[in-house]
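Why show two proteins at once? Because comparison is the fastest way to build intuition. When a single record is shown, students tend to memorize it. When two are placed side by side, the eye starts asking what differs. So, the first record is below.
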Amino acid sequence: ATQWAEANGYTIKELYDSGRSAFTGDNLIHGQLGRFVDGLKNGEMGPTPVLLIEAFDRFSRLDVAKALGLFSDLIERGATVVVLGTAGNVMTYKAPLSMQDMVIALVAMDGANLYSRNLSKNVKHSVET
């Protein structure tokens, strides 16, 4: 994250939502992600706001429709979403989004939600047995 920020002329203001669920949306309602979204809506994020995340599952694990709505809202309000990914794969999403970018983002959002749904089922099953 630091390398990307320095290479692109940004200063990082770190957001941590430790203990806030991206599956239930608690990170958006009560966490710092929600403060970022509110700041963007209120015009407090500057002329070129960037949300830099390590993977889509750090952004949202909500169902795809809700995650897409949040993602689209950020982009439409002028934010750039940068996903660092693994092995140096950096994806940059900003307006106007291409169909290819949307498909890649949707697959990542669906994967994040599926992971959390399966984890929830496994935890519930282990508690019941």
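Second record. Ask yourself what differs from the first in the token line.
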Amino acid sequence: MSELVLTDKQEEYIDDKTRHLMVMGSAGSGKTFFACVKVILYALEFPKARIGVFRQTLPSLRETAWREIREILVDYNIEFEENKSNGIITLDNGSTISFTPLDDDRKIRSLNLDFVYIEQAEETTEEAFDEL
């Protein structure tokens, strides 16, 4: 297992606790990797944390954040169980990471989450953002 390597800018914001953190950069600049590391670190720090990861469609969510989070967990030997049909990853400390598309507002109503990550937030409606 190799050591987790972040850029200087990523290191600067990895412990940021502000309510809204927008990560911007060019294609391939490491935005998704950074956000996924942040999700995992939160899940590890807070046992039984409920984390929601969102993107407009399920196929695009599977190809970005879901894949990246799984790869990081495997690469760094972090134990987890995955329920692919429900879109949930559970860590050994009871924290859950749920992957939900934003293609139907009913899927996000009344969620009780501790941490929210929206991949490609520019695809998201203001209503969905406000609900989350």
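One difference worth noting in the second protein: Helices lie at 8-13, 31-45, 58-75, 126-131.
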